[in-house]
Amino acid sequence: MTATNPIARYYDRNTGRFLWVGGSGGAYAIHRALWGPGVTTSEEASNYINVLIAECIEEVAAPIGSIEILDLGCGVGGTLFQLCARFPESRGLGVTISRKQLEIARRLSGRRGLSDRCRFIQGDFQRMDLDIRADVGVAVESFVHSLSPSVFLDSAARHVQSGGIMIVVDDFLAVAAQELPEIDRRHVRTFQEGWRLPGLCTVEELEEESERAGFEVVEIRDLSSLVRLGRPRDMLIAWTAPLFRRLGLDGIPFFGNMIGGNALQVGLRKGFIRYRAVVLRRRG
């Protein structure tokens, strides 16, 4: 797998900065920080989604003994490490399209003494046939990188066993893009282009495709209120992103991330983008 893939290139170029700037510490997160009840530090906020996922697994999957966990779009392994710590008899497989992320994940796995329980491979999970039929699949901010909801769910159906669950945490449009005012549609396009998000859709579209792919929706939770907006760096980016876009820097991962991130801030603030967790169960 080479970095000629635009998503691989995006993460190869940006992952180090995400870890450095994000303040996730030992959570090793490159996903959204959530400021839930009792959260007081950036590391806790970065780990909060992992806590919610673990609670969901306990409530919905009722794990007994060993469970197989599959992380589609695993980043540097932060979520998989947290889940394997929460469920000591579990085993996990993480898939990332980024060579940089793979190298970091494997190094961290060895450092944490988890190499025998946490495997990591590089590839495009949309096109892979993996040697796993997981009890639990997770996809934290990777669903929207898929070509479409149907492509993502077809991959999930191949790799999550009957009765297993798939937990998707990601950004969703509040309504279909064509129903938005033109100014908001432009922000949606900017977000998609900057962050390489062809699969951005409404949660209703995900529900519809889930039915076709053999899943049923168990729960939908809106987490948007837990995202902190208007941080100092967000305000700085709000000033500079329009200039970067006018200069045509969208295609460069560093600038594309800032340009898309500013559009995301607008979408979350105005409410036409929502951050949600969706739990699906694969029918038997």
Task: Explain what you see.
With 284 residues, the protein is α/β, with parallel strands linked by helices. It has a single domain, classed as Vaccinia Virus protein VP39 (Rossmann fold, 3-Layer(aba) Sandwich), CATH 3.40.50. The protein is 45% helix and 19% strand. The chain has nine helices and seven strands. A seven-stranded mixed sheet has the order 3-2-1-4-5-7-6, sandwiched between helices. Helix 4 links the parallel strand 2 and strand 3. It is globular and about 55 Å long. The mean pLDDT is 92.
Name of the CATH first level = Alpha Beta
Rg computed from alpha carbons, rounded to a whole number of angstroms = 18 Å
Instruction: List the domain count as a whole number.
Output: 1
Task: Output mean pLDDT.
Answer: 92
Strand content: 15-25%
List SSEs in N-to-C order: HHEHEHEEHEHHEHHE
Total strand segments: 7
Helical segment tally? 9
Give the biggest beta sheet: 7 strands, mixed
Strand-pairing-aware structural class = alpha/beta
From the spread of the alpha carbons, the general shape counts as: globular
Helix content: 40-55%
CA-CA gap between termini? 34 Å
Question: Could you list the spans in which at least 5 consecutive residues all have pLDDT below 50?
Answer: none
As laid out across the biggest beta sheet, the strand order is: 3-2-1-4-5-7-6
